[in-house]
Amino acid sequence: MGTGPRPGRGTRRAAGDAAVNGTPPRGLWNRGFLSLVATQFFEAASDNIIKGTLSFAVALGAPWEQVFGEGGNGFVGLVFTAPFVLLSAFGGRIADRHSKSRVTVLLKAVSLAVAAFTALEFARGSAWGALSALAMFAVVSAFFGPVKYGMIAELVEPGKLARANGIINMSTNVAVIVGMLVAGLVAQRWKSGFVDGQPSGASAWLPGIAMGIAVTLGFVTCLTLPRLVPQSPGLPVDLNPFSTYVSTLRDMARGPLLLTALAWTFFYFVAAVVLLVLPDYSAFLGIDDDRTSLLMAVLAVAIGLGCVAAAYLDAPARRARFVLVGAAGLAAGFAALGVAPADFAVTMALLAASGFVAGFYIIPLQSNLQALAPDDARGRVLGTANGLSFVMAGVGNGMFLALRRGGMPSNRVFLVLGGCCALMAVLAFRNARRTAAPA
């Protein structure tokens, strides 16, 4: 979690140098970065529309609850996670070997076909078909993850990385808001249109229509990305996704990169559990899916605001302390949620506070991860870190599933999550003391 010397192969160049048709590094608000922000926005929105709609479809009392059993949204989360674990490092190799902008256009084109499949499966009421569509979107996103994070360092100057990450995270969380709000609205109307166990009428096509709009807009915005040159065009082709993990993890372990990545991935363990708990709050609070989506929206806004605040207050000497503040704040917020009464306003306030401090945890770690990664291996480093984050998300999904099937109410799962964050806060405290700047 510290900020040690940068390990890596080859000579580090200023980010963006010769990356965009040989032009020098660019400021923050350049066309390429704005294009990336927009493309990532629609990517995150589409992911959350399908994942959110499916989560509501399998939650307590929903039409597909019996298909996957109690705690079925944990199973949905595992299916979404698996492609990221298997393919992220392989996607990072592709990102290093090819132009990241061209890879993005190809991935967005594939998304158009997957959106059409999604529309058909939801319309005909196939739970397994809809789950297959979710897995397909996860495959596309697994390849896009190392591309988008690696592209940031090619589009903006090194000194603007923290702010660029804050903006990306803010836009992503706004996209999560939009995606989950749309998912709540769509799921509510899609479920109300069920007749004899099957969706009917125009509402049957609502999930597909929503997905089609988001994916189409993402395809259009990615066409405005500048042409980026490959960072490591001579990288050998290796179809074994796990060999990239092994070699990259070995390189990362030679310096602070591995510990930074592991701390960063903990956030995705937390996020995975929270996103599985909240759909069950419809039953816990006695509210409809629209208002449950509002809880998710408030959480996403708060995380985004915390990310921007952390980004603009960023300084290398503060990062270890920011991580400590974030971890401790999450521990306190989740502990409070675990014992809070079934009150909508109280739940919203606690989620907002927890989300804001989460920004101070994630941004310093994400900025360190990108800054420490060598230019010619950035895609593989970020792809490996992305894969690890989804391993942690998978652990979170499994934990949620086990706790729920063991009889623990969903709101009490927050107590377990608070304990995990408290442990991370202890580790962050030890790291902050070790890396504290001399007086």
Key descriptive features of the protein:
mainly alpha; 439 residues; disordered N terminus; globular; Growth Hormone, Chain: A
Describe the structure.
It is a single chain. The chain has 439 residues and is an all-alpha fold. It has one domain (31-232, 255-435): MFS general substrate transporter like domains (Growth Hormone, Chain: A, Up-down Bundle). The protein has 15 helices and two strands. A two-stranded antiparallel sheet has the order 1-2. The longest helix has 32 residues, at 161-192. The chain is globular. The model is unreliable at 1-25 (pLDDT under 50).
Task: List the secondary-structure elements in sequence, H or E.
Answer: HHHHHHEEHHHHHHHHH
Biggest beta sheet attributes:
2 strands, antiparallel
Distance between the termini: 20 Å
Total strand count, please? 2
Rg computed from alpha carbons, rounded to a whole number of angstroms: 21 Å
CATH superfamily: MFS general substrate transporter like domains
The proportion of residues forming helix, as a percent range, comes to over 70%
As a percent range, the share of strand residues is under 5%
- Low-pLDDT stretches are 1-25
From the 3D structure, determine the CATH topology. Answer: Growth Hormone, Chain: A
Strand order of the largest sheet: 1-2
Mean pLDDT: 82
Total helix count? 15
What top-tier CATH class fits best?
Mainly Alpha
Number of domains: 1
Find the structural class using helix and strand composition. mainly alpha
* Corresponding CATH architecture: Up-down Bundle
Q: State the assembly state of the protein chains.
A: single chain
User: Quick one: overall form?
Assistant: globular
